[in-house]
Design brief:
Its main location: cytoplasm. The protein has 160 residues and is of the alpha+beta class. It has 4 helices and 7 strands; from the N terminus they run E-H-E-H-E-E-E-H-E-E-H.
Length: 160
C-alpha cells in the first residue's frame, strides 16, 4: 500500500474504499464541483459519503449523482438536499472523451475521493470497468500472497 506524501496539499474529506475492490480503474480525472454554501460547510466538517455515487454525462455536461453530503446542522431553511445532483467542472475535451469511453460495455464513471485543494472542493473520478466475482477473489489472493512474501522477507532480515 502506498504511503501518503507528507507534502500533499489535499485535505481529503471522503474516500471510496470499495471502488478499487469492485472496479478496475482505467483512467483518473480531477474535477471541480458546483456546490452551495451549506454543502461546503458540511464538507469542511469532514462529512460525506461516496459509496453509492457515480458520474454521468448528460447533454454535454458532467454530473455527480447519488453522493451523500449530509445537511449542515447549523443551516436554516435554505439547507441543501443531501443527495442532489452536482455539476462537475471539466474541460469540454475531457467530457467528450469520458462520454465516448463510458458508453463502451461494462464501463462506468465512479468517484474515488472528495477533497479540498487550495480551498476549492475537488472530486477525483475514475473511468472504471466492473470486476467479475472471480477477478475480486484473484485480487484478494494476490494481495494476501504479497503480504505473506513481505512478512517472510521481514522475518528473514530479523534473523540475520
Amino acid at each position: 500500500m502506498a504511503k501518503k506524501k507528507v507534502d500533499d496539499p489535499r485535505k481529503i474529506v471522503a474516500n471510496n474504499k470499495k471502488a478499487r475492490h469492485d472496479y478496475v480503474i482505467e483512467d483518473v480525472f480531477e474535477a471541480g464541483l458546483v456546490l452551495s454554501g451549506t454543502e461546503v460547510k458540511a464538507l469542511r466538517m469532514g462529512r460525506a459519503s461516496l459509496t453509492d455515487g457515480y458520474a454521468a454525462i448528460d447533454r454535454g455536461e458532467a454530473w455527480l449523482e447519488n453522493v451523500h453530503i449530509p445537511a449542515y446542522f447549523q443551516g436554516t431553511w435554505n439547507n441543501h438536499a443531501p443527495r442532489r445532483r452536482r455539476k462537475l467542472l471539466l474541460h469540454r475535451e475531457e467530457i467528450a472523451r469520458l462520454e465516448s469511453k463510458s458508453r463502451e460495455k461494462g464501463h462506468t464513471l465512479i468517484p474515488l475521493s472528495l477533497y479540498f485543494l487550495d480551498g476549492r472542493a475537488k472530486v477525483e473520478i475514475a473511468l472504471a470497468r466492473g470486476k467479475k466475482e472471480y477477478d475480486k477473489r484473484q485480487t484478494l489472493r494476490e494481495q494476501q500472497d504479497m503480504r505473506e512474501a513481505q512478512r517472510a522477507i521481514r522475518h528473514k532480515e530479523m534473523l540475520g
